[in-house]
Recover the amino acids of this structure.
């Protein structure tokens, strides 16, 4: 079987359970070959199907996320190591970085706070965007912090990124130009399917209405947002009104930014002056 034939066959198998079957097949093949996906596609006529591909395909057919199989996920302009200890960074979350770029325009935030940092995706993407910035990532999960610190090391950002165990903003002092916040926001006991089933529940669920963690985070935002700064807060597609109300109660100005699918995805909170 040629490599092209193997990709077609794998795509058919994966299509039963994946909406990105062809992409999944290509990423698994590239990983088995030890190549980037683009290199694999350009050279596929000259390559043989590696022995390890069948095993990787079987893991994906069993429901294991691609990012857990390959151990890598691209996010914004960086590539991150991911493990089952962290939420897999998703393109929807890049909306927070887009909102920050639009807010700061021709200036740069000097300090960044990432609450619920997980793999470090948002903080490290911001530090890649603004090379002079420094930042702090906070997470309650010790295994997640190990992943985040490893990513900072691999990206050459360990000197600019500090990671700390913590309970959201409790014990965090000072004000920050940019806050990046992606808390759990799924309603408890909601039936889920797909890759998310393999991710840590603590990073997903937030009480009967999905707002438990917002209620704990929002009261700290007025003291944490520096003059001229902002907080970019990820929300579920139907939570703009409810989370905005929490922010308004703290005297903050709120704007909504949509993701590429047109869903409400990011609330931008700033101070009144």
């Amino acid at each position: 079987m040629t490599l092209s034939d193997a990709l077609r066959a794998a795509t058919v198998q994966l299509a039963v359970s994946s909406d990105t079957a062809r992409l999944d097949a290509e990423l698994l093949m590239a990983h088995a070959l030890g190549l980037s996906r683009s290199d694999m596609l350009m050279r596929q006529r000259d390559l043989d199907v590696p022995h390890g591909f069948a095993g990787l395909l079987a893991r994906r057919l069993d429901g294991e996320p691609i990012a857990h199989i390959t151990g890598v996920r691209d996010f914004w302009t960086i590539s991150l190591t991911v493990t089952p200890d962290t939420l897999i960074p998703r393109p929807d979350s890049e909306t927070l970085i887009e909102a920050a770029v639009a807010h700061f325009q021709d200036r740069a935030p000097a300090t960044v706070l990432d609450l619920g940092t997980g793999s470090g995706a948002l903080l490290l993407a911001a530090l890649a965007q603004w090379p002079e910035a420094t930042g702090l990532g906070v997470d309650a999960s010790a295994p997640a912090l190990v992943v985040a610190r490893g990513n900072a090391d691999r990206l050459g950002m360990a000197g600019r990124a500090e990671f700390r165990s913590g309970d959201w903003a409790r014990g965090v002092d000072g004000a920050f130009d940019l806050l990046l916040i992606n808390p759990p926001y799924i309603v408890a006991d909601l039936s889920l399917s797909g890759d998310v089933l393999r991710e840590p529940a603590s990073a997903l669920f937030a009480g009967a209405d999905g707002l438990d963690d917002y209620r704990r985070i929002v009261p700290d935002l007025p003291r944490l947002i520096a003059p001229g700064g902002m907080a970019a807060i990820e929300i579920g597609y139907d939570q703009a009104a409810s989370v905005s109300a929490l922010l308004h109660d703290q005297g903050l100005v709120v704007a909504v930014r949509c993701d590429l699918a047109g869903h409400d995805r990011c609330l931008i909170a700033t101070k009144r002056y």
